[in-house]
Structures are given as structure tokens and as C-alpha cells.
Amino acid sequence: MAAPPSLYLFAILVLFASAAALSLAHPQTHRHQFIIQATPVKRLCKTHNAITVNGQFPGPTLEINNGDTLIVNVINKAKYNVTIHWHGIRQLRTGWADGPEFVTQCPIRPGGSYTYRFTVQGQEGTLWWHAHSSWLRATVYGALIIHPKEGDSYPFPKPNREATLLMGEWWDANPIDVLRQATRTGAAPNVSDAYTFNGQPGDLYKCSSKDTIIVPIDSGETNLLRVVNSALNQALFFTVANHKLTVVGADASYTKPFTTSVLMLGPGQTTDVLISGNQVPARYYIAARAYQSAQNAPFGNTTTTAILNYKSAPCPAKKGSPTIKPIMPFLPAFNDTATVTAFSRKFRSPRPVPVPTKIDENLFFTVGLGLNNCPRNFKPSQCQGPNGTRFTASMNNVSFVLPSNISILQAFQQGIPGVVTSDFPANPPVKFDYTGNVSRSLFQPVPGTKGYRLKYGSTVQVVLQDTSIVTPENHPIHLHGYDFYIIAEGFGNFDPKKDTKKFNLVDPPLRNTVAVPVNGWAVIRFVADNPGAWIMHCHLDVHITWGLAMVFLVDNGVGHLQSIEAPPPDLPIC
Ligand SMILES: *[C@@H]1O[C@H](CO)[C@@H](O)[C@H](O)[C@H]1NC(C)=O
Ligand SMILES: *[C@@H]1O[C@H](CO)[C@@H](O)[C@H](O)[C@H]1NC(C)=O
Ligand SMILES: *[C@@H]1O[C@H](CO)[C@@H](O)[C@H](O)[C@H]1NC(C)=O
Ligand SMILES: *[C@@H]1O[C@H](CO)[C@@H](O)[C@H](O)[C@H]1NC(C)=O
Ligand SMILES: *[C@@H]1O[C@H](CO)[C@@H](O)[C@H](O)[C@H]1NC(C)=O
Ligand SMILES: *[C@@H]1O[C@H](CO)[C@@H](O)[C@H](O)[C@H]1NC(C)=O
Ligand SMILES: *[C@@H]1O[C@H](CO)[C@@H](O)[C@H](O)[C@H]1NC(C)=O
Ligand SMILES: *[C@@H]1O[C@H](CO)[C@@H](O)[C@H](O)[C@H]1NC(C)=O
Ligand SMILES: [Cu+2]
């Protein structure tokens, strides 16, 4: 007896659907083309020729699953050298695709191209990509979302909706000119004119209201917000009027969920939060503004907004009727370090994690600013820093200088001498009261291109100690090629005798960027299981410009699985 045709159809559909599900369970390869180009972008009533990817600002969002491979062909049609960094991606054995200029590659010159190829392994959540050359990342950035493997789920109930909010900074100028001016004068660069959500300043700035970002929600929904600090030079507070936020992830690692009404993200950091539609249907401002820890330093004291819009909210602005303004949240004061501390202390991994306990490399790095005395052959106009100096910055008194004729990774791999030395100090060359009243004679660091060599598989602890040279400041320290556990944070000078007791060796958070407390310290641990040359730097770009960086030179292990791959044939050369 023949089955009715509809049953056949049904059976075929079921077969087809399960085959599709099976094939999706395999890792996918995603191919993209990024064309770097100047594009007119109008903000704050004025149009600038911004450098963009594919004419989009912010650039395209890349969405993949854990385990997938990305192949991104970058074509440089702009007038500047450019590179792209895949912020937070571990780049296991693919260090040639990491991106920082003159560290893992020479820049892609105008007219040139380079294809970045890498596989994401064991990371889930929100990351982002950005230019890693000069200050191009002011406009060249976008989100990189890593979903669980097909068939896997989030370690929390599936959100009804997801939205990504990239926080940025907008200059009513060419950011490269702002950098050039600062480099010429030795003074601090101009601060930005607006903060942005997804490239839009929002309602509180001139000529911006009509493009304010709307984030939809409905009563009874629980949604996932992926928040990224892509600002060039500013740590930011983030909050939503009348709504609590449940933090579930940061830097593409899950966290033990905790509830807060405000987030603080240093540049480079990401935070995934759940938000529930449990308030009166209306429109609520999502807002961000500066957390400014440096003393007597100018900063952009403005607020960017997006709108959390309940679908069932009464119509916002009927013609002829008065506009009902969205509800504005309370934001912490610009210098509210107590709120930052309370927030950062809540971070834990979801369960006990394998923190390295036997430490091979016990390192202590100071991080901070400095002042160079005006060189003899410089004019006063070139020394407009405090008291006729030029700003600088350093780690362990070494102010990092990039090579200009080869990348550090190439020099390290090929044993080319005279580019990078492996004598970066394990400890500060001079011990002093780091967070006290530092003698002026200690303010001027030594320029150099120094790396710290690590054996494959060694276990590393780094104490990152802020200094009060010029001013103490919360520095977002970002390590390429690795995630690390943040096992403790504190204020004042790190004291191994009493602070070791505070180490969380059970469930510390795993991150790629740590916001080192102002006038304080943070301790991180990782295993050096990824060979290559990995820059560790402050993610306030002005501080990298001044030299707040160093590189880890990680040896190959045994066999090809513990060794970096061969450089791709199209790797740009200088
Ligand atoms: C920086 O700010 C000063 C003062 O407002 C202004 O004169 C200068 O043109 C700005 N520089 C750039 C590159 O926009
Ligand atoms: C920042 O702006 C607010 C008003 O929006 C003002 O009350 C406050 O004094 C300003 N703070 C600084 C440090 O400029
Ligand atoms: C924050 O700055 C204000 C001045 O704008 C000052 O009165 C207050 O004491 C500062 N708070 C802290 C914690 O430093
Ligand atoms: C600059 O000079 C003034 C007056 O001599 C002094 O009070 C101040 O501490 C100096 N600042 C720096 C950063 O050296
Ligand atoms: C790169 O430049 C440095 C100094 O400017 C020089 O010592 C070195 O030999 C050069 N290396 C190459 C590979 O050209
Ligand atoms: C800091 O030390 C200098 C000498 O190095 C001294 O002149 C100055 O008074 C001290 N300042 C404070 C606030 O202790
Ligand atoms: C850094 O090194 C320079 C040159 O040796 C020295 O003058 C300065 O005091 C040092 N500063 C620190 C903080 O070690
Ligand atoms: C661009 O990169 C090349 C090396 O590939 C370098 O020689 C040149 O100085 C760079 N240009 C700028 C403006 O940085
Ligand atoms: Cu980065």
C-alpha cells in the first residue's frame, strides 16, 4: 500500500533537516573581504573622510561558531599603512595573523593586501576586530561574535534577542591629524568630541538625534547585550535606566552570573549581560560616559546614549504632540573608583578552573607614564608637555619602540639580530615607592625594543603595578595570543608578604585585558603554550604611542603541534 504523497514529502523533509543539522555540526570556514577605504561620514553636523571597512562605520560584524575558521582578505585602498588585529582571538600557532604592525607583520601598504587565516578554538562570547596601526582603529573596528558550537547552548537560558553595542569615540577632526599634532608637540592629544554607540553619538549631541541607536525589547523577554569598549583612549561607565544587568561573560569567556546596575569597561574589554523586560513599557536610555582616573588630565565629559525601546511602549513622537523623552539613568561620577572596584571584584569563572600554581616565571612589571626632558635640538613648540617636557610611558622603565624595517616575529623566528633583544627586565630596575611621591629623577624611561623570552609551556605570573609618575591611572593592559586569569587586584604597592594571601586560585576570571586599578596593582597568570611574538600593551592608544608596551617572545615546543606555522606567502614585507 502506498503512503500518501504528503507523508513522503514529510519524510524527505525530516531527512533533509537532519542532514543539514549534521553538516552544521562541523566547523565552517567563513570568507570575507575587507576593503579599507576613505568614506564620507557625517557626525556632529560635519562630514569627515573617515577610514572604514567596506564603507561601513562601524565595520561589518563577523558571526561565527566556536571551532570555525575565518579567512579575511584585507585590501588597502586607503592612503595609510594598515593592519587588522582580531582582539582576543588566541591565534594558536597562527601568530602571523595577529595583526599589530611591526610586531607580527609589516603593515599592508596603500595598494597592498593580506589574507588573515585563523581558527577559533575554545572561545565563546564577544570579541572584536580593529586596526592595529597608528590610530586607525578610531574608525576601523567591528564586532566578532562567537556563538557556541552548533548543537551546544549558552550556559544560561537562550535569550529572546541579542544586540551588540560598540562604544567608540568620535573626533570632529581626522584622528591621524590629532595623533600627528600630539607627536609634534609632545603634549597630550586632543580629547574626542563625542562618545558613540555603534558609531552614533545619540540624542545628547548636536545633529545626532535622528540616528540614535534603538535597542528593541518586549515585556517578559530576557535579551543578551554584548557591550564592547572600542574607544581609543577612554575607560567608560555603561548603564541602562531602571534595569539591572546580569553579567554572564567577558572577553569571550563565561563568568559566574552576577547582577549590577553599572559596568565599567576599559578600552579592549567586552562584557556580555542579560537584561529583562520587566519595567513599565516605555523608552529608557542606555548611556555611557567617562571613567577618568588620571588626575588633572582633560577628558571628554559628555554622555552617549542609545534607547532601550519596549515594543509595546506608547508611540514616542506623534506629530503635534510633545515628545516624551526616554528615562535617563544615573551615571557614576567620572572619578568614582569605588564603583569600579566593587564591579571588578564580582568577577569569577563559572566553576573551579585550572590556574597554574607552580610558577616558572615570576615577573613584576611597573606600568605608567613618564616625562622626557626636552632634547637639545628640539624647539619649545615640540616640548609642550608639563614644564617643557614631552610625554612618554613605559613598562619597567623601558619605553617600547617598534622596529620599522621588519616585524619582531620575523626577526625572532629567523634569528635576525639587531631588531629585538630578549633582555626585558623581570623586575623594575630601580625599586621605589611606586604609588607614592616619586622623585622627579625617576620620571624619564629608556627607549628600547626589548622582549621577554619564555620557554614553551612555562607558567607565568605577572604583577602589573601602576605608578604615580606624572599621575596614577587605571591602565587597561591587554595581552595578545593569550587569555589570563586575574587572580588578585589591590591598591598601593603590591606586597608579596600580605597580598599573596588574597590570590584566588580557585575560580578567578579569564580575560584578555585587565583594568589595573589606579594607584594599585593586578596579578595575572597564564601558561605560555602559544609560540610567537606577543605584544602586551596598554589599550589606551595614546599610551601605546608613548611606549607603554613590551613583547613576550615564546619559543616553539617539541614537534609541529607545539610550533608556530610557517609564515603565509602573502605576509607583507617592509
Ligand atoms: C586640537 O585642539 C585645538 C584647541 O581646540 C585646536 O586648535 C586644534 O586644531 C586641534 N587639533 C586637531 C588636530 O584637531
Ligand atoms: C562634567 O559635566 C557635568 C555636567 O554634565 C558637570 O556637572 C561636571 O562638573 C563636569 N565635570 C568635569 C570634571 O568637567
Ligand atoms: C571627584 O572629583 C570631584 C571634583 O569634580 C571631587 O570633589 C571629589 O572629591 C572627587 N572624588 C574622588 C573620590 O576623588
Ligand atoms: C612643574 O613645575 C612646577 C613649578 O616648578 C611644579 O610645581 C610641578 O610639580 C612641575 N610638574 C612636573 C610634572 O614636573
Ligand atoms: C633595521 O634597522 C635597524 C636600525 O634602524 C638596523 O640595525 C637593522 O640592521 C635593520 N634590519 C634589517 C633587516 O634591515
Ligand atoms: C614629594 O617629594 C619632593 C622631593 O622629592 C618634595 O619636595 C615634595 O614636598 C614632596 N611632596 C609631597 C606631597 O610629599
Ligand atoms: C629609568 O632609567 C633612567 C636611565 O637610567 C633613570 O634615569 C631613571 O631614573 C629610571 N627610572 C626608573 C623609574 O627606574
Ligand atoms: C609604512 O610601512 C613601511 C614598511 O612597510 C614603512 O617603511 C613606512 O615608514 C610606513 N609609513 C608610515 C607613514 O608609517
Ligand atoms: Cu588589542
TrEMBL record:
SUPFAM superfamilies, sorted: Cupredoxins
EC number: 1.10.3.2
CDD domains (UniProt xref): CuRO_1_LCC_plant, CuRO_2_LCC_plant, CuRO_3_LCC_plant
Main location: secreted
GO terms, molecular function: copper ion binding; hydroquinone:oxygen oxidoreductase activity
Keywords, in A-Z order: Apoplast, Copper, Glycoprotein, Lignin degradation, Metal-binding, Oxidoreductase, Repeat, Secreted, Signal
CC per GO annotation: apoplast
Cofactor note: Binds 4 Cu cations per monomer.
Keyword Metal-binding: yes
GO biological process: lignin catabolic process
InterPro entries listed in its UniProt record: Cu-oxidase-like_N, Cu-oxidase_2nd, Cu-oxidase_C, Cu-oxidase_fam, Cu_oxidase_CS, Cu_oxidase_Cu_BS, Cupredoxin, CuRO_1_LCC
Reactions performed catalytically: 4 hydroquinone + O2 = 4 benzosemiquinone + 2 H2O
Compartmental location: Secreted, Extracellular space, Apoplast
Signal peptide stretch: 1-21
Pfam family, one: Cu-oxidase_2
Domain Plastocyanin-like intervals: 36-150, 163-312, 423-556
Family the UniProt entry places it in: Belongs to the multicopper oxidase family.
PANTHER family for the chain: LACCASE-5, MULTI-COPPER OXIDASE
Name of this protein: Laccase
Source species: Cucumis melo var. makuwa (Oriental melon)
